[in-house]
Amino acid sequence: MNCKEFDDKISQYIDGELNKDEEKAFLDHSNHCQRCQNTLENTKRMIGSLEDLKHMKAPENLSKNIIQALELEMEKFTGEESRESLEKSTKENVQDNEHENVQKIGQHESDRINRKGWFSKQSPWIKKASLAAVLILIVSSAVILTSDWLLSPIEDDMVSMESVEESALDERVADDTDEFSDSINNEETVDSQDEPEVTAMEEEESEFREESSSEEEFGEEGIDEETPDMNEPLESEEGESTIHATEEENTFGIKYSEWIVLLLGIGVISIVVVLRKNRRN
Amino acid sequence: MNIEEAKLIKESQQGNMNSFEQLILRYQDQAYRTAYGMLGNSEDAKDATQEAFIKIYKSLKNFKLQSNFSTWMYRIVHNTCLDMIRKRKRRQEIPMETKRKSNDEGYEIPLEDTADGPEELLDYQFVKGEVKRGILELPNEYQGVIILRDIEGLSYERIAKVLEISEGTVKSRLNRGRKQLRQRLTNLLQDD
User: How far is B163 from chain A (nearest CA, A)?
Assistant: First the structure.
């Protein structure tokens, strides 16, 4: 055995892995080579220095700490698992209920559960966005209702104007006795002669008045039925108020659009807030 | 594997924490020593041992009773330590608890070693510190075999099973690793 072979066998000799022949050859070389003998001694010493590590003990509470850490992890794990199983069972329950409800309650109810199922399947941010959209829809509906309410005074005004006109007509009709009907017809004829630019509508109206005066014979009911058409000449008297009402409507219309913009803005801000919150989560 | 150990493993597989704690108590010293040898300080050794036993518990369902539990345990501890070493290298932090010419804190020097004079004791402590330090600086493939052989006293066959390499590879790695350690020690002694 030479020094190189000796060097290669040192580990196996120390570990008792050499057979008898190999061991004999190894020891023979060691006895004749001081350098290799020193190498063997140094290696033994080096390995021996690790002897105390062989008796090293784990810290006292290590097993307890491991169990505690493990239990914590298991709690977390079982928590997640139970949550998943709960969600799964809930889905299964919903599906079961859905089946029963189809039989019991009918198609309408099952559609409702289908919608619920879809919602529960969605990711949290979709749920939040959907809720925000629903909120906007509700607010928009509220705005529409509010705008009806806002516009209702105008309609009331219009209705009241119409009723004023009707009452005025009624009064006129009531005043239009047989005594004055001829004179009125005459005046209108004179008026129509004096004012050649009178509109066709006025002419028609005057004709109608003539007819109405003749219809007096048939009683008030017939007159009442025809009064809406007869009030046209009165429009000129109420023209200013009608124009004024239209202006108010425009004013309300502008406010209405402002409301829409404001509420849309609120809706957009709420969506942005929801999305940001979702991103943080 | 004896009957008692097999029972503990089976009960642990069924989620019995007391049985698993008994298993830990049986093997925690071996696991801790291996981790200490590979990582070089008690804190990291504790963390690695804890992490390894948690992994063991999680994988216990797949463990077959025909296998050797301690071999499997050593493998998981070794791999956990290698993961920690890799993480440490990534952070480029190599804390060395062992310092030259200083007492090692993780263990006590056996009383019989003090039979030598103060110079010999200093020399012994110096060698011991340097060997530990040297093991930490060895390539990972040599580290594992030296710890499992020179600290844990496993046979070549078992080392081969733990590291999933051949016995021939164990022999050659052990020889090269020891040679590197010895060379390092010789150089330091010559410098002094």
Answer: 18
Per-residue CA distances from A143 to A37, A130, A260, A264, A265 (Å): 102, 20, 7, 11, 13
Interchain CB contact of B127 with A (< 8 Å): yes
The pTM is what? 0.53
Q: B50, A45: Cβ pair inside 8 Å?
A: no
Q: Report the C-alpha gap between B8 and B19 in whole angstroms.
A: 5
Transcribe B130-183 into DSSP letters: HHHHHHHHS-HHHHHHHIIIIIT---HHHHHHHHT--HHHHHHHHHHHHHHHHH
d(CA B82, CA B164): 15
**For testing contact with chain B, the best of A3, A15, A17, A38 (most B CBs within 10 A):** A15
Mean pLDDT for the stretch of residues A2-14 = 89
ipTM exceeding cut-off 0.85 for this assembly: no
Residues from chain A that touch B50, judged by Cβ atoms under 8 A, are 62, 65-66, 69
Interface contact flag, B107 A49, Cβ < 8 Å = no
Residue B109 lies in a domain: no
Contacts of A59 in chain B (CB under 8 A): 32, 42, 46
The pair of structure tokens assigned to A17 is 């892995």
Write out pLDDT tens, residues A76-98.
Answer: 776 666 666 666 666 666 565 55
Q: Does residue B50 lie within any of the structural domains? A: yes
Q: Is residue B70 one of the residues assigned to a domain?
A: yes
> Which of A75-84, A209-218, A235-244, A255-264: highest mean pLDDT?
A255-264
Using CB atoms, pick whichever of A43, A46, A53 lies closest to residue B107: A53
DSSP secondary structure letter of residue A231: T
Of B31, B124, B175, the CB nearest to A49: B124
Please check whether residue B64 lies inside any domain of the structure.
yes
Q: How far is B86 from chain A (nearest CA, A)?
A: 23
Q: What is the domain-level CATH number for residue B80?
A: 1.10.1740.10
